[in-house]
Design a protein that fits this description.
The protein is of the alpha+beta class. It is built from 12 helices and 7 strands. It has helices spanning about 5-25, 35-55, 60-85, 95-110, 115-140, 150-175, 185-220, 230-250, 265-270, 270-290, 315-330, 355-375; strands at about 255-260, 295-300, 305-310, 330-335, 335-340, 345-350, 380. A hairpin with a 2-residue loop joins strand 2 (about 295-300) and strand 3.
Length: about 375
């Protein structure tokens, strides 16, 4: 028994409208969910296009078909746009809107018998397929550092359906059909798959936003809000990871404690905003001096810590000294005038100086205060 493709159309329409409406509802809850909301709007637009395709016999042939196909391709362009919004990128998409224009022109040419139904179907399906390939590429090759799992999964879904659209496009070019709703096996599979697409991708789009927010919350919980450096809890976690690694492989790592010399004077003389700027600039300098695998954290007040994996005492002293010199060299600009900025530092190495957090930090702190006693602006080893 032949499957009724029109019934599949209406089933797909109902699913896509539900998926789009759910995404819009979710997206309206918070401005940070804007990409989900816009994805839902794009899905509803594509649903309207499908509705016109399925009911075209009751509408003017040219106007109905032209609007239907324009809505389908436009909806896909807007879906791509919602991903750009998620990535906080420019939503300018000349290539996408050019495909909408090509679709409209092709339908007009089909109406005056200058192109066949197969060509018209191939142009529409091909345009949608190209945009799906772009979505897959955007979420895989250009995936953001955060929320990678959800992005890769979304890319995989779009990759599969882009391949399906490519097959349907090639089939449409060589097919000899008089009715776009003819119940062919490929079209039946295509419409059934599209239904799965909308349900799956709706969940993926919401997953991407939620996963990114979870990672942002985790970063907020592990970082100092003023300087962006790791907070004490995060540094403790890094310490425990290094301690576990070194205990298994008989390695060593070093910590360096930095304290800004006469920091209270900055607050008293220039105000707390300048004091905050001093702390922020210090973190920037420390990050530029150390390796990417080193951890920079704010221990408390004007004290900062660096954890340096696989580092000996001599190397740790060199790194701390290099940081001290760079901080002194840069100083601080206040009202266009350079103000001297210096730090004192203490260095301790695991396991020689201590084998737990309290002992190692205490050793580095003792060395730091010895540096203060030595006249400040110097580095002392524990």
């Amino acid at each position: 028994m032949a499957l009724d493709l029109q019934t599949l159309f209406f089933s797909t329409i109902m699913v896509s409208l539900t998926a789009g409406g759910s995404a819009i509802y979710f997206g309206l809850r918070d401005e940070s969910y804007r990409s989900v909301r816009d994805w839902g709007v794009a899905t509803v637009i594509m649903s309207l296009g499908l509705t016109l395709v399925a009911t075209r016999n009751s509408a003017d042939e040219l106007v109905g078909v032209m609007i239907a196909n324009a809505l389908l391709v436009s909806g896909m362009v807007l879906i791509y746009r919602s991903f750009l919004i998620y990535r906080l990128e420019s939503t300018r998409d000349i290539a996408g809107w050019s495909m909408v224009g090509i679709t409209v022109i092709t339908v007009a040419l089909w109406q005056v018998d200058l192109v066949s139904l197969g060509v018209r179907t191939a142009v529409v399906t091909g345009s949608i397929g190209i945009i799906m390939w772009r979505c897959a590429w955007l979420m895989s090759v250009r995936a953001l550092p955060s929320a990678r799992r959800s992005q890769y999964f979304t890319a995989a879904i779009y990759f599969l359906f882009a391949m399906l659209n490519t097959v349907r496009t090639l089939a449409a070019v060589f097919a000899d059909a008089d009715d776009a709703l003819a119940p062919t096996l490929l079209d039946t599979v295509y419409m059934s798959s599209i239904t799965v697409l909308w349900v799956t991708v709706t969940l993926c789009v919401i997953w991407m936003v939620v996963e990114r927010q979870q990672e942002q919350l985790l970063r907020m919980a592990m970082s100092d809000p003023l300087t962006g450096a790791l907070n004490r809890n995060a540094m403790l976690a890094e310490f425990e990871r290094e301690r576990y690694r070194c205990s298994r492989h008989h390695g060593s790592f070093a910590i360096a404690m930095f304290d800004i010399d006469h920091f209270k004077r900055f607050n008293d003389t220039y105000g707390h905003l300048i004091g905050d700027a001093v702390l922020q600039d210090l973190v920037v300098t420390l990050r530029e001096v150390v390796r990417k695998l080193d951890s920079v954290g704010r221990y408390g007040g004007e004290e900062f810590m660096i954890i340096m994996p696989d580092t000996t005492a001599s190397v740790a002293m060199q790194v701390a000294e290099r940081a001290r010199l760079e901080i002194q060299k840069r100083g601080l600009l206040v009202n266009g005038q350079r103000v001297e900025l210096t730090v004192s530092a203490g260095v301790a190495v695991y396991p020689v100086s201590g084998q737990d957090w309290d002992t190692l930090v205490s050793a580095a702190d003792t060395a730091l205060y010895q540096a203060k006693s030595n006249g400040r602006n110097c580095v002392v080893a524990a």
